Here is the input.
Amino acid sequence: MAASQSSGTTKRRNKNVSNGVSGSEKKQLGQWGRAWEVDWFSLISVILLLCFAPFIVFYFVMACDQYDCSVTEPVVDLYTGKSSLADIWNRAPSFTWTAAKIYAIWVAFQIVLYMCLPDLCHKFLPGYVGGVQEGARTPAGTVNNYEINGLQCWIITHAVWFANAYYFKWFSPTIIFDNWIPLLWCANILGYSVSTFAFIKAYLFPTNAKDCKFTGNFFYNYMMGVEFNPRIGSWFDFKLFFNGRPGIIAWTLINLSYAAKQQELYGQVTNSMLLVNVLQAIYVLDFFWNEAWYLKTIDICHDHFGWYLGWGDCVWLPFLYTLQGLYLVYNPVQLSTANVVGVLLLGLVGYYIFRMTNHQKDLFRRTDGNCKIWGRKPAYIECSYNSADGTKHQSKLMISGFWGVARHFNYTGDLMGSLSYCLACGFGHLLPYFYIIYMTILLVHRCIRDEHRCSSKYGTDWKRYTDAVPCRILPAIF
Here is the structure.
């Protein structure tokens, strides 16, 4: 970890690294990661997201609170004059100090677990990789160390939750649902605060000035981030903490609170709610079991930390990824046995494809190709690239196993799992299907974005790879 520079030195170095670099020099320095320049389409998209994404979240949550999760009735009411925007706004719960206290305790608790408790799970769980791990090399050539203890944080948090629910009774298991919209206000405050702090930090005291990218456009810099790996001290890493702590650990707690509310309202928890809880818990636990592997994914390896990650992880993830459970509180669905089995199989098969595809890639990387994939030694394309310090590196792109079926076959499994969450809710409303629509757009966009980076990074070697594996996500289709 490079020490932070003084303000004057930092500003001079940032200028040299970004605005003072010619096009040919950018190529030489390894132009992968976030964009150097912003076109008009990207700028308009960024401004639209900054303006409307918070209202999209509010709209869905409000639709459940006031219209039993119908996404069309609020529009009809506004069109017919039955309600006005002011009416809808005034009916929605606002910020409360109770919610602020709950949220502050929650975030503080996760910071303590993240910073103060070194991982012990890797010492007694066979196959689990935790403790201090190295991340991927940044464009500037830096390799950061991370304390991988997310699984431990998840276990402790849920142990406290169940101990409270069945023994201590400090708070109601429905506490999250009961304060849902006030908590949305608190999450927005944190999301905007951390994004703004990271933005200012990148200008005044970046962790590594060589890993900062300035486009010259305020809105793009704010949303997509300037600093690659902003940190406070040696261990508090913004990307790892906000990607993998308050939001995603809360995901399963939020679903448990929804189930508790269903039990309170109807005297039972429906099989659809159980399906959503189980399938999404598998996904969350998989994330924490493979947190060390996550250090090699696009979020950590390529994305800079800005509003896109800061606000997105605080607000978008916990409030929109949990829409299925929220919907089932207002619209309980009891599925037939055949439908339960079908949805469960779809989710489990999707998870298997997602996990095994990523496992094959991780195994290939760890052994440098000296392994067996589907019973034989994997084939690969030999590639080279330059980091920002001008150093040439070698890399291998596997074209065997699931990675020979499609270039992003892990996304195929992810989409199958996402669809299973939605199907568990039946077909009564569109709202629970927002997740599969959003995930399709997100993963297709991420696929194209990742391939653009790889094309810039590997050059003609990437063309050889795409010729060997022509399909992106769906074989013979896309």
